[in-house]
Amino acid sequence: MIKVTIWNEFRHEKTKEHVKAIYPNGLHAVIADFLGKNEDISVRLAALDDEYQGLPDDVLEDTDVLIWWGHMAHKEVDDELVKKIQQRVYLGKMGLIALHSGHHSKVFKAVIGTNGNLQWGREQKEIIWNVNPGHPICAGIPDHFLIESEEVYSEPFFIPEPDALLFIGWFEDGNVFRSGACFNRGAGKVFYFQPGHESCRSFYNPYVQKIITNGVYWAAPNNLGFDIEDKCPHMLSPTKDEFNA
User: What's residue 80's pLDDT?
Assistant: First the structure.
């Protein structure tokens, strides 16, 4: 069973009627609904205004994949919480999926190591191109698909060179964007995926749902068989019996 925690600011849905009309229970609830249809995925919801900002230690320690959506309140996220998330990813205990404006979250920037800046503009049609069809996250996704309305994100996008580039978005005005990218950080995995503006219906798109679902399976920690510690341990030489085995 893969344990997924979906973290959402959950502010727009409470303060803006047009957003509430699209995501009445929060956009994280929509994500939970389609992920929960998989028998081997369990889902928990968390939000910024919850106690401990939704992520007390026992929840973090019980999370295999953390999905993060933030926008208007990045600065309110506790720095100590960010450090805990960063270390769990680096130690291979948890995967991270950052969605849409999560590119500017403290968590995403801390984990990948750059400022995550980009250019952005008004909502318009977007075509998502699958440029890495052999990657597990791209399984079941056609060579391209249409999103009827999405906020424009455009290059340059200040992220490190991805370990794998999966999707490129093309918008009506001609802007292009690296819409899906994977990163290895320490022993952990990170997936950034661009669609998901709060006033758009992107999370209802079946291909967007399939990509996020595939991302959960990909980002889930491997069974390493041993615990990686947050330190540089003294090197131990193999015993004579181990050497001769």
Answer: 98
